Amino acid sequence: MLRSSIIRASRSSASAIPSTATRQAIRMPRASSVVCIQQQSRQAHAISNPTLANIEKRWEAMPPQEQAELWMSLRDRMKVDWNEMTLQEKKAAYWIAFGPHGPRALPPPGETKKVALYTVIGILVSAVVFGLTRLGASAKHPRTMTKEWQEASEEYLKEQGTEPITGYKGMLVQSKPGPKGQFDDEE
Amino acid sequence: MSFIRAASRARPSCLLRAPARRVTPVLSSRPAFSTTARRCSEDPHAEETFEEFSARYEKEFDNVNDVFELQRNLNNAFAYDLVPAPSVIVAALKAARRVNDYPSAVRVFEGIKAKVENKGQYDEYLQELEPLRQELGIVLKEAMYPDA
User: Fold this and answer.
1) To the nearest whole angstrom, how far is the Cα of B2 from the nearest Cα of chain A?
2) Which of A68, A96, B40, B112 has the fewest Cβ atoms surrounding its Cβ within 10 A?
3) Residue ranges making up the domain that contains A15
């Protein structure tokens, strides 16, 4: 779902004008130019209303052959004076070329909600998994995870002249002070 | 293949001009796609003025021969940080009429609507283009699909 919306976004941002419908229709009937000429003479009159009625709903379900034929006849109608075209023909021509279908299709309703919901679910699941791993962790910290050790590390770095730019006091300290006599056994 | 030819044509050097290349007089008369403004002035970084832009695109639209060229030029003309002048729009609409592409003509008005800053400017454009719109019989998208 997310992937498809990204693809859709990238496609729709690519160009505002070229219409896929025209491209398809131009590509398809190359082989049958004779048919095209016949249609041209036949389509001198307006396309009947039932053919174009509710085309916005039917277009995507139409077989490609019919789509191509309808677009071809509309293209032939566009060759006459546009004032002679019926409103329905104009609407159909515009909708097929630039209507919200194919790469211009609008996102399905509720997509934003779905994305937000699944994101929240993912965060919650990961939080639970993190909590479980922490539950299973040992209570004994490594010996370097004490304030004293980290301060000693700072001292050591300072002696060596390492990293003088951000070498402020308390730079490495991130743990609580350890218990008394924690380093006794090492000496 | 054609882009190699175009590249070799664009270069003024005589080194690449092999005799075999001269057999394309149709191509050499006018480039099939003039993508950018050719600038012969001394300053290669000069900004194109609005008038130059308008003149360039009027010429581009006058030379349009098919739907693809029309839509390509529309994409380019509307990609700038400006609203094309009415003269450019007129040229575009006439080009749409010439290549019999009604949807693109409607789309031009949609493009203006998207580019202008406010509704007042759009109305001014509509007023300016009203005679041509009536003459060509272009119905606006707002009129065809009022609720969309």
Assistant:
1) 21
2) B40
3) 1-43
Is there a domain that residue A37 lies in?
Answer: yes
Report the alpha-carbon distance of residue A85 to residue B39 in Å, rounded.
43
Report the candidate in B90, B87, B82 with the shortest Cα–Cα distance to residue B50: B82
- Domain annotation for chain B: domains and CATH numbers: 48-148 (1.25.40.40)
Q: Is residue A19 part of a domain?
A: yes
Q: Which two tokens stand for residue A159?
A: 């002696």
A172 in any annotated domain:
no
Three-class SS state of B73: helix
CB contact under 8 A, A93 and B103: yes
Q: How many domains does chain A have?
A: 1
Look at residues A109, A111, A73, A108 and name the one whose alpha carbon lies nearest to residue A92: A73
With respect to residue A7, please indicate whether it lies within any of the assigned structural domains. Answer: yes
CB contact under 8 Å between B103 and A96, yes or no, is yes
Cβ atoms of residues A157 and A170 within 8 Å:
no
Phi, psi (deg, nearest 5) at residue A22 = -65, -40
| Residues A138-181: tens digit of each pLDDT | 878 888 888 999 999 988 988 888 877 777 888 888 888 887 77
The H-or-E segment that residue B129 falls in is helix B119-136
Predicted TM-score (pTM) of the model is 0.62
Identify whether the C-beta of residue B74 lies closer than 8 Å to the C-beta of residue B111: yes
ipTM of this complex: 0.70
